[in-house]
Amino acid sequence: MSVVLEQIFQVGFLAAIIRIATPLAFATLGEMFSERAGVLNLGIEGIMLLSAMTGFTATSLSGSLWLGVLAAVLTGALMGAVHALFTVALGLSQHVCGIGVTLFSSGLAYFLYRLIFGQQSVPPSIKSFETLPIPVLSDIPVLGPAVFNQFSLVYMAMAAVPLAAFVLYRTPWGLSVRMVGENPRAADSAGVGVIATRFQAVILGGALMGLAGAFLSMVQFNAFTFGLVSGRGWVAIALVVFGRWDPWRSAGAALLFAFVDALQLRMQASGLGHIPYEAFLMLPFIFTIVAMAVMSRNAVAPSALLKPFRREER
Amino acid sequence: MPAPLIEMRGISKSFGAVMANEAVDLSVAPGEILGLLGENGAGKTTLMNVLFGAYAPDAGEILVEGRPVTINNSADALAAGIGMVHQHFHLAPRLSVLENLLIGIPGKSGRIDRAGGLARLAEIGHQHGLTLDPDLPVSALSIGEQQRLEIVKALFRGARLLILDEPTAVLAPTEVDGLFSALRSMAAQGLGIIFISHKLNEVRALTHRCVVLRHGRVTGRVDAPASTTSSEMARLMCGHEIVPPARGPSTPGAAVLTLDGISTSRHSGMALRDVSLSVRAGEILGIAGVSGNGQRALAEVISGVRAPDAGRMTIAGKSVSRFSPREVQALGLGRIPEDRMTTGLVTNLPLADSMVLPRIGTGAFSRNGLLRPDAIHAFAEEQIKAYDIRCPGPMTRAGALSGGNLQKALLARELAFDPKVLIVSQPTRGLDIGAARFIHEKFLDMRARGCGIVVIGEDLEELLMLCDRIAVMYEGCIVGTLDSADATIARLGLMMTGAEGHS
Fold first, then answer.
1. Closest-CA residue in chain A for B101?
2. How much is the average pLDDT of A200-222?
3. What residues does the ABC transporter domain cover (chain B) (predicted)?
4. Could you tell me the CATH number of the domain that includes residue A59?
5. pLDDT at B392
6. CATH superfamily of the B6-238 domain
7. Domain map of chain B by residue range?
8. Chain A contacts of B110, Cβ < 8 Å?
9. Domain B245-332+419-503 falls in which CATH fold?
10. Min Cα–Cα distance to chain A from B80, Å
């Protein structure tokens, strides 16, 4: 085990945590905005995959990485709007629609990818983002190269957390989001458009999920594969609960999960070879289940989560 | 006379075949408190929802200071200076007082204007004596404080007309006084107020003028409520005289329900601390108190839903050991829970199913593990006739019945098996005078037949009329028990605030 402990404090290990946490942080913040407004978005897994595909494709065709990021964000926002159309405007079951969005988006991603790239023996790849060291800060020993010599999307994730907290807790729009998620009737009687606010929150959430997808295909793997997301969306839903619907806690939850995930990767590589590697793969998920079980005892979901709003209904 | 602040002319609104409002005229002048009287279903709330923009009227117009306006939603109403305090508060419990006030208010340079909000809150508090701690979450406020917040919220948005829908239904007597003095202060400063109630004494004490609705139409206008008798107003409301049932003398027998030193731990709401009481056969015991002082826990213990941590309970002389609903029911307890819709019955199933639910496993309704639909149907049909429950039949979805008919159905379900003890919570809340009267008569009937009854309630007039003795609960304890001959509303009200103990 001492081998493992030594590795924790290495630059590479810390950098790995940050890299693993980035897409989770985007996805968790996205899901959090949606749920704070009262809409569970189980479409997250599919939205991430479809956005990863469109981002990769846009970059691959245009050669511009930022155009790819834009495509991914727009895809996420669009699928968020689709989910909101069914669950907010039409008031249908959020569970059923979310699963539907995931199945549809995943299918569409496979289909479009095959249509555009065909069957190739060597999967196409793109030239990824390069790391962008921040002057001065990146010279701090250990922490500097790990945290401040990262990709621009990583810095965006770091900025997104305080920004999300500011928007949610300090702006009138953020208050409206929290109010429509707690008591839509109260928001309505105060003259706040419940339907509009929910649409906006779900679309913003979708855009953040799109960023998560973009990071996976354009930074982490430089390619699109069908198993790209592999449950990260579902994990984000658990992390929102773990983070009690708060931006800071959610980001903390993402970091903790990333730590366990990075740890198991090292354990796979560090010569504990007599244990099948699948056992290590399970670790982060076991951690999630245990953390959920412990933390969700006191967690209180937004009161109006899962409840559609119709005005004339009494 | 100044121009009316608000005028409604010829308002009509129907839901399907039901005329909720028909050609209603109504106006409020600045500085005036208008009472809107009527039984449940008379159309008071519908009329106010039209005024507040929740429903569009089928006909008629609304004028604000002489100018016709169209009010399509609550934002329009707020812009026209109309504020409403709903019967069920529109607050988000986990957000703070200030956040509930600032919702929908544009911020300052993109941020919530906290300083401005605090200043305005302090100003309103100073003007009308309505003070609130801005940073407490709403869930930490008492019901009275939440109502105060709703009033402040309307004033905060610049309301010049304030509508209050049955505001006193949730308050303790002392809180009612505070509300009334705030309302008088607002009227004195030129605000118009519409006060909706079916409590005649309150309307007489507070309002300058009142309008009476029945079946959606204006059936009376009273220009001097203070000098009009309650019975005259009741006649306008109901269309006929209402005589309260008389409680004759009774000779109570042996104790049928005793609680000895019952204490519970806190799960949700107030816990019980060392509660002892006894009810004899042929006696009605009232439990008075401001809601949230342990009444729910008491009802749950007696009905076997919750086991106490300490103490003993007996029903008809037999000790209750396991505290399950089935056990207490087998010992002879009947129960009418506080919330008809959630714990009383299953709203999406046929009425007949709900009427046999507590006894579904007994031989009367099932045999060899199979239901006997014919017996269930026949039982329901019989009770529907006996209690005059207005519904198309036993297969009607229970949730489609009105409150009064549901309460009759629950009463029928319990009384059909001749309980030795009956525990009821808020038996007539939300019922109109006619239905309440029916329920009261049934209770007195059961009393005459030797049933012991526990009535948990907040309506002191009702308790004084029904009960032989009244116990007062405060913070999970019984602080005193009075013979109803010695009890007055003032005295009970004082005990309910914990100010006076008496045993």
1. A190
2. 96
3. 6-240, 257-500
4. 1.10.3470.10
5. 82
6. P-loop containing nucleotide triphosphate hydrolases (3.40.50.300)
7. 6-238, 245-332+419-503, 346-413
8. 171
9. Rossmann fold (3.40.50)
10. 12
The size of the A-B interface in CB pairs under 8 A is: 76
Q: Which chain A residues touch B102 with a CB distance below 8 Å?
A: 172, 175
Asked, for residue A132, whether it belongs to a domain, the answer is no
For residue A182, the chain B residues in CB contact (below 8 A) are 92-95
pLDDT at A106: 97
* Total number of domains in chain A: 1
Mean per-residue pLDDT pooled into runs of 10, chain B (503 residues): 84 85 93 89 86 89 92 89 90 93 88 93 90 91 90 93 88 83 93 88 90 89 84 79 75 91 81 93 92 88 90 92 88 86 79 86 85 91 88 83 84 90 88 82 92 91 91 92 89 82 52
Confidence of residue A313 (pLDDT cuts 50, 70, 90): very low
Mean pLDDT of A205-234: 94
How far is A309 from A217, CA to CA, in rounded Å?
A: 37
Q: Which residues of B touch A171 (CB under 8 A)?
A: 107, 110-112
State the smallest CA–CA distance between residue A299 and chain B in angstroms: 13
Residue A65, pLDDT > 90, answer yes
pLDDT digits (tens, 9 = 90+) for A99-152: 999 999 999 999 999 999 988 888 888 888 888 888 888 888 878 888 888 999
Let me know if residue A69 belongs to a domain: yes
Among B103, B164, B165, the residue to mutate for chain A (most A Cβ within 10 A): B103
Say yes or no for a CB contact (<8 Å) between A176 and B103: yes
Please give the residue range of the domain that contains residue A235: 2-117+151-295
Residue A137 belongs to some domain of the structure: no
pTM assigned to the model: 0.81
Tell me if A186 and B84 make a contact (CB, 8 A cut-off).
Answer: no
- CB contact at 8 A, A308 and A187: no
> Given this chain, do its domains B6-238 and B245-332+419-503 carry the same CATH topology?
yes
Over residues A141-168, mean pLDDT: 92
Contact A170 B94 (CB under 8 A): no
Residue in chain A nearest B94 by alpha carbon: A182
Q: Which residues of B touch A (CB under 8 A)?
A: 52, 54-55, 73-75, 78-79, 84, 86, 89-95, 99-100, 102-107, 110-112, 153, 157
Note whether B54 contacts A178, CB cutoff 8 Å: no
Q: Can you tell me the distance from the alpha carbon of A91 to that of A84, in angstroms, rounded to the nearest whole number?
A: 9
Residue entry with tokens 């009105």 = B402
Per-residue 3-state assignment (H helix, E strand, C coil) for chain A: CHHHHHHHCCHHHHHHHHHHHHHHHHHHHHHHHHHHCCCCCCCHHHHHHHHHHHHHHHHHHHCCHHHHHHHHHHHHHHHHHHHHHHHHHCCCCHHHHHHHHHHHHHHHHHHHHHHHHCCCCCCCECCCCCCEECCCHHHCCCHHHHHCEECHHHHHHHHHHHHHHHHHHHCHHHHHHHHHHHCHHHHHHCCCCHHHHHHHHHHHHHHHHHHHHHHHHHHHCCECCCCCCCCHHHHHHHHHHHCCCCHHHHHHHHHHHHHHHHHHHHHHHCCCCCCCHHHHHHHHHHHHHHHHHHHCCCCCCCCCCCCCCCCCCC
Alpha-carbon distances of A8 from A158, A253, B66, B145, rounded to whole Å: 21, 18, 76, 53
> Which sign does the torsion angle of CA A242, A247, A248, A251 carry?
positive
pLDDT of A314 strictly over 50:
no
Q: What is the mean pLDDT of chain A?
A: 91
Kindly determine whether residue B94 and residue A303, on different chains, have CB atoms separated by under 8 Å.
yes
In a domain, A314, yes or no: no
Our CA-based measurement puts residue A213 at a distance from the nearest CA of chain B, in whole angstroms, of 30
Residue in chain A nearest B110 by alpha carbon: A171
Contact B103 A188 (CB under 8 A): no
